[in-house]
Amino acid sequence: MASDFPADYAVWHGLSPMTDFFRDGDPGLFLVSGSGNHVTDAAGRRYLDARSSMWNLTLGHSCEPVKEAMRRQLDTLPSGTVMRYEHPPVVAVEYAARLAALMPAPLRHVRFGNTGSQMTESAAMLSRFHRRMTGAPERRYVVAVHNGYHGTGPLATALTGEPILHEWSAPVDDYVRHVTAPTVPEILALVDGIGVDRVTAVMVEPVLGSAIGAVSLPFLESLIAECRARDVHVIVDEVTTGAGRTGTMTVSERLPEAPDMVVLGKGLSAGYFPLAALVVATPIFDALADPPLRLGFPNGSTTDGHPIGMAAGLAVLDVLTADGFLAGVRRTGRHLVELITGSLAGEPGVGPVVGEGMMLGLELVHDDGEPWSVAEVNRFRLTCRDHGLLTSYAPGFLPLMPPLTLSRAECAELVDRLRAALRAHKVER
C-alpha cells in the first residue's frame, strides 16, 4: 500500500485491482462535499461533475425538495418493506401509482428494488416465472445484445453482453444468448434459431451499453411488433435513459406500442437513495395475480419499497413533471452540443457529439479515423479530471452525462474545461 494511504484503509472497491488504485490514487482526490453540480475533494479542488456521480445524480447535490422529502419521511416512517406481509408503506403505494401513471399503457404495475442490476435480473426471472405459471415452462431462453450492459450479478452478468465478464465470472446462466449486431433481423434470426417455443424474452437498451449514440425508435418499434407476433416478451432496460436523462421520462413513451416490461433506476431518486423499479404490463400482471398455483413471484429483498427511497422518488417526479422542466433539459442539451461543436471545431482527435438531452458523447478519433481505445479515453478522462472536469469513458467516446440541472453558464464552463484538457492532452501524447 502506498505510504500516503492510511494503514487501515479498508474499502475494497472499483473494477480494477486494488494495487492499481493504491499506486495511482491519492487520498487528496477523495470527495468530501458537493454543491449544485460541483464537487470538492479532500485537497480542496473543485470539479464540474459531468458524469453525475455515475450517471444517477440527475438533479445535482442541492435539490432541496428531495432532501426535505427524505427528512420528513425519516420523521414519519423511517423503514418499511413491500417484500412480505400485508403492510406496504403508504408512501410506496403513492409512489407506485404516480410512477405507473407516467408510463405508457399498459405498463401499470411496479415492483421496486435497489439497483438496476437487481431489476434486470427480476425482469428476466419474471418472464420465466410467467411462462411456468401459464403452462410454457420450456420457454426459458432470454436473448440480449453483444456489448449491451444490464449490470452484474448471478443473472445480470449473463445478460450483460461483455465477454470478459462472462469469462471471469463463469459459470453464467446457460439460457442467455447474445446477438452480435443490434438489429431486428439478427435478433429474430437468433430467436427463430433457438425456437420461438423456447424463448421467453428479448432484453435491449435504447442506447447500447456504455456507448453513447442516438436512440433508434424505429428499431424498438419494429422489435416490439415482431416479438409480439411471436409471443416473446420485450424488456427495455432504461436504467440509464429513463427518469429524464434523454429529455423525456422514458424512451418507451415515444413508441406507438409499449414493451412488456421496462426497467428503471439511477435517476429515479436523483441518486439520493438506492432505488430501481420494474414496470410490468397488465397482461403479465393479470396472469400472475390469481395464478393456478397459489404462489407469488418469489423475488425481492428486505429494502424493496423503502420509505426513504419512495419519498425521494415522489419528490423527483415533482421536479421532472414540473411545467417546462424536461423541455428545458432538451433545450440545454441542444445548446451544449452546439457549444461543443463550435468551440472544438478543428481540434485534433475530436469527432461529432452524439446523443440527446443530457446523455451525450464526444467521439474521439485518430487522424486515420480509428476510434480511441478505452485505455486512451481513460487517460484523457484523467486529463479532464486534472482540469476540473469529471467524466466517464467508453471505447471511442468521452461520455458527457451532467445533471439535468446544468445551467447555460455551466455549459460554457464544461466546454472551457474540456478544451483546456484537449490541448493539454495533445502535449502529453
From TrEMBL:
InterPro entries: Aminotrans_3 (IPR005814), Aminotrans_3_PPA_site (IPR049704), PyrdxlP-dep_Trfase (IPR015424), PyrdxlP-dep_Trfase_major (IPR015421), PyrdxlP-dep_Trfase_small (IPR015422). Keywords: Aminotransferase, Pyridoxal phosphate, Transferase. One of its GO terms (molecular function) is pyridoxal phosphate binding. It comes from the Bacteria. Gene3D superfamilies: Aspartate Aminotransferase, domain 1 (3.90.1150.10), Type I PLP-dependent aspartate aminotransferase-like (Major domain) (3.40.640.10). The keyword Transport does not apply. Pfam families: Aminotran_3 (PF00202). Belongs to the class-III pyridoxal-phosphate-dependent aminotransferase family. This is Adenosylmethionine-8-amino-7-oxononanoate aminotransferase.
